[in-house]
Amino acid sequence: MPADTANAYTDTDAGGRAQGRATVGTGTTADELIRFDRVTKRFGSNTVLDSLDFRVFPKKHVTLIGPSGSGKTTILRLLMTLLKPDEGTITVDGTPLSHEERNGKLVPAGEKHVREVRKNMGMVFQQFNLFPHMSVLRNITEAPVQVLGMSRDEAAERALELLDMVGLKDRSDTYPGRLSGGQQQRVAIARALAMRPKVLLLDEVTSALDPELVAGVLDLLRDIARTTDITMLCVTHEMSFARDISDCVMMFDEGKVIEFGHPEKMFGDPEQERTREFLSAVL
Amino acid sequence: MNWDWSAVDAFLPRLADGLLVTAQALALSALLAFGLGLVWAVAQRSGPALVRGPVAVFTEFIRNTPLLVQLFFLYYVLPEWGLTLSAMVTGVVGLGLHYSTYTAEVYRAGIEGVPRGQWEAATALSLSRGRTWGVVILPQAIRRVAPALGNYVIAMLKDTPMLFVVGVMEMLGEARQFSSETFLTVEAVTVVGIAFILLSCPASFLMRTLERRLAR
Ligand SMILES: Nc1ncnc2c1ncn2[C@@H]1O[C@H](COP(=O)(O)OP(=O)(O)OP(=O)(O)O)[C@@H](O)[C@H]1O
Ligand SMILES: [Mg+2]
Q: Do B131 and A146 touch (CB under 8 A)?
């Protein structure tokens, strides 16, 4: 990609739209943590993402907003390789998800390569998706032991620290079915963090919770945003939360980023009529 | 009709021998059915296309031909091909293979019952395929279908007399031999029937209890 010189973007920050590519943070191409290049995703005749371009630099917190069906979940699922794009390239920390170099040739990515790239990312789901047959502790330790090769003891020690952080240290031997939704979601967050991901993908993580449990989970995420270096991509309808944690809010509609920028600007004085309409409907 | 209690007495030790063989045959073929069934189910769900097709055809074929025919096939045809198996091995392979095609369906249902979110969570944690199957999917799938698998063990128990045709001296085989020696057929066969009732009734009860337990 010769036209894609590194400094073509270096002057952009949240809100800098000069290149037409939504960009969060500053740096050279080599610093980019997440990059979508002309990514198109269709389900049958339904084009959900239409030649989407955006990039995110490390440590930034991005909130994706947009009407239902605008493809926010699809973006996170593409990143997590739960879906494959029809066209375009997704790059995570400099490594493309769809292909790898083998003997100097570009070949479609193998299972091992994909798993390697995935290690950069953690995901928290709307429906928690904890493993119901494992204790809370085992839910958190399983992947560090199996994937990162941590010893059981070390993984357990780390898991207990994380459980302490999410306020559930005394529930490590419990099974997920015996926890409230809010507690389950906090375990799911701990489970994702146990893999020490560079990027945390959060898909409407409080939508399935009873209203009184939402605040606890959001507070936890605010803490994580404030105290860690983790990059966040977050889909949420909690606009005050988005305003608190985000460096950038991206508004999606009809498969594209139609507007993006600092939350003050996006929530205070959006440029696009569609954004205005959407925000007045959800705020 | 004369009922001769002394015949029952005389037959009981033979029945005990037969019971031991029945138990052995059942245990081994159940293990085979559980293991192979799992292989069929996993292969059909996530094997390469080159494997999925043949497995589907093979299991469909086995499921739709009678066990008795399969046993005769193993007994008469395999030696023609230079493969001579003992009576027990022939019986175990026949019964286990036959029922593996049923347990495969049971596993398949169990696997499909595991919510998609479990696969996705495993993927998001970068677990390998093997680990995803081994520690996430199968433990949940098998737990769901344990009672159904148990019911097939009972069905297999009731099919063990068929192994007599390939020369396995299980309970019915003992009874046939006993009656050919003593002409006391009614007693021997009745005792075998009762033995089966005594075995399968408690087993069925156990399965129903297990089912209720797991349903909670
Ligand atoms: N597996 C799938 N098969 C077919 N269509 C799909 C699939 N997944 C998503 N879609 C469609 O893609 C579009 C975008 O879905 P997506 O879930 O990404 O939207 P979203 O922005 O997350 O919406 P919401 O706010 O409702 O969660 C929708 O029209 C949806 O129906
Ligand atoms: Mg969604």
A: yes
CA distance A186 to A200: 14
From B41, B19, B8, B49, select the one nearest B184 (Cα to Cα): B8
CA of A270 vs chain B CAs: smallest distance (Å) = 34
Q: What pTM did the predictor assign?
A: 0.88
ipTM computed for the complex = 0.89
- Is residue A49 situated within a structural domain? yes
CB pairs under 8 A between A and B: 60
pLDDT in tens, A43-81: 999 999 999 999 999 999 999 999 999 999 999 999 999
Which residue, by CA, sits nearest to atom 5 of ligand 1? A43
Contact list in B for residue A131 (CB cut-off 8 A) is: 118, 121, 136, 140
Hey, is the C-beta of B140 within 8 angstroms of any chain A C-beta? yes
* Alpha carbon of A50 to ligand 1 centroid (Å): 14
Q: Is residue A139 part of a domain?
A: no
The superfamily (CATH) of domain B5-215 is MetI-like (1.10.3720.10)
| pLDDT for residue A2 is more than 80 | no
The C-alpha atoms of residue B215 and residue A198 are separated, in whole angstroms, by 41
Does residue A118 belong to the interface with chain B, where contact is any CB pair within 8 Å?
yes
Pairwise pLDDT comparison (B170 vs A22), residue with the higher score: B170
Tell if the CB–CB gap between B124 and A123 is shorter than 8 Å: yes
In the prediction, which pLDDT does B1 show? 64
> Sorting pLDDT into bands at 50, 70 and 90, what band is A7?
very low
- A118 to chain B, closest Cα gap in Å: 6
How many domains does chain A divide into? 1
Rounded CA-CA distance B147/B42 in Å is: 20
Domain containing residue A214 = 3-120+197-282
Alpha-carbon span A128 to A233, nearest angstrom:
17
- pLDDT reported for residue B213: 82
